[in-house]
Amino acid sequence: MGYRIQIGLLFAFPLLVIGALWVLGQSIPVPVLGRAYVIDFDLPEPGETIGLPDVQGPDDLTRPLVVIDAGHGGPDPGTVGEDYYEKTIVLGLARALRDRLIEEGGIRVAMTREDDSFIVLGERAEIARAMNADLFISIHADSAGDQEGVEGASIYTLSETASSEAAARFAERENDADIVNGVDLSSTDEAVNAILVELSQRRTSENSAQFASLIEREGTGVLRFHPQTRRSAALAVLRAPDVPAVLFEAGFVSNPEEARTLASAEGQEQFAEVLARAIRIYFARQSGSE
Q1: If DSSP codes are grouped into helix, strand and coil, which group holds residue 123?
Q2: Which alpha helices (DSSP H) does 121-189 contain, by range?
Q3: For 56-85, what is the mean pLDDT?
Q4: Over the stretch 251-287, which tens digit does the pLDDT of each residue have?
Q5: CA dihedral defined by 172, 174, 180, 186, rounded to 10 degrees?
């Protein structure tokens, strides 16, 4: 076989292999990998203004504002147990807390969602910032997969590493409207902005940790807590640099008994009682009245 023919076959071989595979693919079924369902939902257009929820409670802007975020919603069910969806359980808990705070008075309340609607993850904390909230609480429920008997609530705050990263990203935004803790960042240079945001994020993280401690303290003996009650993570809903925030994992939907408790009127009332008391003590400390 001549040298030129060998070179030609060398270049033609890959094409022959691809052609053969294509022919075989027409007659041999290819297994489908991955999940057998697709969820479609509409996302907001870029630059679209976030719709802010109504504020309930006293008509007095000097009163503290709490934004309650029921996780998931709409086509996103969250964790799914035998008989319950996370999105339904956490909405019930959020409503119970809202009702308790309004009933006791003195605190304004807003909810990121009050029904089975979907809100983009990144918008949840932004709603709290846009409303100048004094506290942001995101409510979720957990899953232990196939492990049985796992139960108990846990409280997440933003991890120290994630806090610093979030502050750096926020300081880099080219947004003349950005105001952090009442300071207009548009009138300062980048270096000063970075320092101001870092200080604000540090203060916010300290307040978040203080509130998390109050939840644990007030809930001991009333709520079931996971052995590892206090946790920190790089969660998107906790990254606002000027709104103290916690993510409260109310329990495990994968645990049928705990899921029933969380979905019950009694369980929601206990949750609301503990969280409302922790919120009031937190604001009392912030005002120096405790």
Answers
A1: helix
A2: 121-130, 160-172
A3: 96
A4: 999 999 999 999 999 999 999 999 999 999 999 999 8
A5: 120
| Rounded Cα distance, 269 and 275, in Å | 10
* 116 closest CA partner among 86, 154, 149: 86
Between CA 280 and CA 285 the distance in angstroms is: 9
Say if strands 179-180 and 183-184 run parallel, antiparallel, or are unpaired.
antiparallel
Please tell me the distance from the alpha carbon of residue 143 to that of residue 181, in angstroms, as a whole number.
36
Distance CA 113, CA 76 (A): 13
Which contiguous run of DSSP H or E holds residue 245? strand 245-252
Three-point CA angle 98, 154, 54, nearest 5°: 20
- The residues with which 22 forms a beta bridge, in sequence order, are none
Helices and strands, number each (H, E), in the chain: 7, 8
Q: Which of 70, 171, 62 is nearest to 118 (CA)?
A: 70
Buried b (16+ CB within 10 A) or exposed e, 138-166: bbbbbbbeeeeebbbbbbbbbbeebbeeb
- In this structure, what token pair is assigned to residue 60? 């007095």
Q: What is the pTM of this model?
A: 0.76
Rounded to 10 deg, the angle between the 86-104 and 256-263 helix axes is 40
| Calpha distance 163→21 (Å, rounded) | 51
Separation CA 222–CA 276 (nearest Å): 13
Residue 110 and residue 54: Cα distance in Å, rounded? 6
Residue 283: both structure tokens together: 């604001």
